[in-house]
Amino acid sequence: MEFRIDRRSGIAAYQQIILQTKQALRLGVLLPGDRLPTAKEVAETSAVNPNTTLKAYRELEREGLVEPRPGLGTFVLRSLAQPQAAANSPLRGELVAWMDRARAAGLERDDVTALVASVLEERYAASDATTAGSSHSGESKELK
């Protein structure tokens, strides 16, 4: 895995490392037992201070996603992957087709990002409100 740090994004480099690691865990790119790049390797490929990487890895460790093994590196403890989000899932195929249609319609990356973000917020805000409402009515709230 190689981290891509966007210095213009306004997101701290250590947060970008955390987000990219979680994305790789969700997509099944990283699996339990996989070794993350060392802080030195990240510094060489991404020009990030090794302490920045170590800060990100400590946060991932606090979340129970990775564990450091002295002298060996930092290893993935658990996955965040859902079968429905796998690279070969039907949902991903539908999303690829939709992206192709959006691009053919002339939408640029920022247009697609804005559109997806607005629908995501709309759809998940509604389900989050429903879940929050049901937890107040005495029903147990399931963890996602």
Using only CA atoms, what is the Rg? 18 Å
Strand content: 5-15%
Question: Based on helices, strands and strand pairing, what is the structural class?
Answer: mainly alpha
What ranges have pLDDT less than 50 throughout 5 or more consecutive residues?
135-144
Defining key terms:
6% strand; mainly alpha; globular; 2 strands; two-stranded antiparallel sheet; 144 residues
Task: Give a description of the structure.
The protein is globular and about 50 Å long. Strand 1 and strand 2 (73-76) form a beta hairpin. The model is unreliable at 135-144 (pLDDT under 50). The protein has a two-stranded antiparallel sheet. The chain is built from five helices and two strands, in the order H-H-H-E-E-H-H. With 144 residues, the protein is mainly alpha-helical. Helix 1 (13-26) packs across helix 3 (50-62) and helix 2 (39-46) crosses helix 3 (50-62).
Briefly summarize what is shown.
With 144 residues, the protein is mostly helical. It is built from five helices and two strands, in the order αααββαα.
Topology:
Layout lengths: L12 H14 L12 H8 L3 H13 L3 E4 L3 E4 L13 H15 L4 H28 L8
Helix pairs in contact: 1-3, 2-3
